[in-house]
Amino acid sequence: MFDRPSFLSSISPVVKNLVIINTIMLIGSMIIGDKMYEYLALFAFESPFFKPYQLVSHMFMHGGFWHLFFNMYTLVIFGTVLERIWGSRKFLLFYFVTGIGAGLCHDLVMHIEIANAADIVAQSRLLGTPTVGASGAIYGVLLGYGMLFPDSQLQLIFPPITLKAKWFVIIFGIIELTTGLTGMGGNIAHFAHLGGMLFGLILILYWKKNNRMYY
What we know:
- This protein is an all-alpha fold.
- Helices cover 66% and strands 3% of the residues.
- The protein contains 9 helices and 2 strands; from the N terminus they run αααααααββαα.
- The protein has helices at residues 13-32, 34-40, 54-57, 65-86, 88-115, 120-127, 135-148, 165-182, 190-209; strands at 153-155, 162-164.
- β1 and β2 form a beta hairpin.
- It is globular.
- The termini are far apart.
């Protein structure tokens, strides 16, 4: 008889380590509290709390268990496939480029919102609002999967339909753009998600142009 591989052993190494680090960071933030968010969350460029390293550190901070769970679940499902195809080093580069790009796009939008704030109260609120989560990089991973496997069939839970990966990515992109422009999405950083997809698209097109997609 042969032992079936465990779930953990089926996860690629970079993805597995990212899940572990993100989980440790969430536990740490629960123990330490607001100080971790003050130093490691991403603030607007103009905020007195902003530090350049936050463009990286915010990717490892999350607002709670379910925020972490859905990001890491998506990373495991789609990121493992990309890491198997690209290799660990290339996948890690892609992950950080999309995550940092997401942070840059988010703060660019924040810069515009702060400049056009109606009053000092609205401006102060924006300056003090932290952004956390790996969602920008996760959207980059989704974009990467959709470009490499456009006709792959994805079974959605809600609504319960089967959809090709390319349409899944396009629909998600349209939803993020629409909710971001209309402000319907509440506290969700929609332009960070779009930034992750944009930087993922740029990097993949660069690799394709230079015949470096798979090595």
